Structure prediction request, 269 residues.
Amino acid sequence: MASRQRSLFRKCFCCVDRITIFTEPAEREILYPNHSFCGQLKAVNKKLFKGIDEIPGLRENRIELQKLLDYKEDANNKKKLNYVDLRDEIIARQAHGIPVPETALAMMNEIELYAVKMLTFMVSGSHKKMRKDILRLACGPVLHLVHDNMDASVWNDDFYKLQLYACHDSMLLALLVTLGIFTGKWPPFAADLVFESYEDKAGRRWVRVLYLNEPVHLPGAEYGDVISREKFTALIGPYAITVDSYRQECLAGGEDGENGGDGGRSAGL
Prediction:
């Protein structure tokens, strides 16, 4: 991976002698909901796939689709068909010109519908009582990072005025759910979510959020698509969490399941 990055950067910055590439081990990654290394998120994922047929309408659709695709659970470690993986496979094939079975294309609307439902449950839990806790672990560190960057851009003249991050669609979906602007659709390829920070002549600070290059109305926004910094902080505060607190919660959560409790929780903002 690093060699490919170096090759790309050489083409982009042909006249630069040396480029430093900073990396993080997978267990420290926060730019996607880290089900692999966060025990509580892993438990949510495990429970979801164990009780996947509890999603209304999914069982009948899954059985029909498995028959059409000749998908046999016995030949796949007794695993039920994963709609999220199936959607990724189809989209990747279409993007690279690889044929897709007509039977799958004929049911693409249903595949998209249940893939979105599954991914939403993966990043926010399957019950309202656990939603806040799961979202904190899915995207809380990124929200805290955005909040800190906004503060630093105002208080520190030498701080970057633009911060750009590349993340996964699962992270985008988690952020959209947390912000109350999720429309039920999978984020399209190269989707963008922008946080803009403003300060008026009176010194009051404001925030505007854009999704797919369009301003969105956040819950509590006073003036159209602009929300005061105080209300923005109140909106994300229950979910934003420092990286250190996030790691402590992930370790404390273990793999016992969706406890939905407050054990080990630290203040966010």
Observations:
- The two ends are 35 Å apart (CA to CA).
- Residues 256-265 have pLDDT under 50 and may be disordered.
- The chain has ten helices and four strands.
